[in-house]
Amino acid sequence: NAGVTQTPKFQVLKTGQSMTLQCAQDMNHEYMSWYRQDPGMGLRLIHYSVGAGITDQGEVPNGYNVSRSTTEDFPLRLLSAAPSQTSVYFCASSHTSGSIDEQYFGPGTRLTVT
Amino acid sequence: AQSVTQLGSHVSVSEGALVLLRCNYSSSVPPYLFWYVQYPNQGLQLLLKYTSAATLVKGINGFEAEFKKSETSFHLTKPSAHMSDAAEYFCAVSEAGAGSYQLTFGKGTKLSVIP
């Protein structure tokens, strides 16, 4: 199993540009989520999905869009990039949406918006 | 609402010394608690989790944590630090019960190990 994969590893965008961060998992996990990590802030939840066709907002959803058309994939779209979205983005998945399930994290995408 | 406080954004210990990373939580119901570790330029991986089966939880790499309800704490310890333990550590809480899909993370504690 490859686990959770993310592409690209690094990205530089200009303000106003749009892009999609890709996330895929091959563990047949129901639950997938996106976090952003900023220095001194820990990880904050952006959006999550409890299954194909079902998504919901987390703590910091503004400026981001998600969809879940398959179990495997959960892309994160930046609609119009802003410097405040400079961050490291992590995708995670777990077997179910239960509270005690371990979340498996991808290696992250480091995004810089100039 | 649940929350996590990690005391100390940066902790330094000598190789072979005790590691103690502090975590206090706030939750309106009995929580599930986790410690994750992040090595440089990598994603997070689970060290251990508390799910109410036992208050002392043993994890990977010699780490353990004790759930103390009276103190609302879940501190992480390791008797003897190794150079390979240098990383950032995150405590996280998830409230028990149906519909609770979200982990709330603390801000992290960066552990340095001095040779």
> What is the subunit arrangement here?
heterodimer
Q: Radius of gyration of chain A from the CA trace?
A: 13 Å
Overall number of strands of chain B: 11
Helicity range of chain B: under 10%
Order of helices and strands of chain B: EEEEEEEEEEE
Features:
heterodimer, A: mainly beta, 0% helix, globular, B: 115 residues, mainly beta, six-stranded mixed β-sheet, five-stranded antiparallel β-sheet
Secondary structure topology:
The complex is a heterodimer of chains A (114) and B (115).
Chain A: E1 4-7, E2 10-13, E3 19-25, E4 31-38, E5 42-51, E6 54-57, E7 64-66, E8 76-78, E9 87-94, E10 104-105, E11 109-113
Parallel strand pairs in A: 2-11
Antiparallel strand pairs in A: 1-3, 3-8, 4-5, 4-9, 5-6, 7-8, 9-10, 9-11
Chain B: E1 3-7, E2 10-14, E3 19-26, E4 31-38, E5 44-50, E6 56-58, E7 64-68, E8 73-78, E9 87-95, E10 104-105, E11 109-114
Parallel strand pairs in B: 2-11
Antiparallel strand pairs in B: 1-3, 3-8, 4-5, 4-9, 6-7, 7-8, 9-10, 9-11
Question: What can you tell me about this protein's structure?
Answer:
The complex is a heterodimer of chains A (114) and B (115). Helices cover 0% and strands 51% of the residues of chain A. Chain A contains no helices and eleven strands. The radius of gyration of chain A is 13 Å and the shape is globular. Chain B has 115 residues and is mainly beta. In chain B, a hairpin with an 8-residue loop joins strand 9 and strand 10.
Task: Give a short synopsis of this structure.
The complex is a heterodimer of chains A (114) and B (115). Chain A is mostly beta strands and 114 residues long.
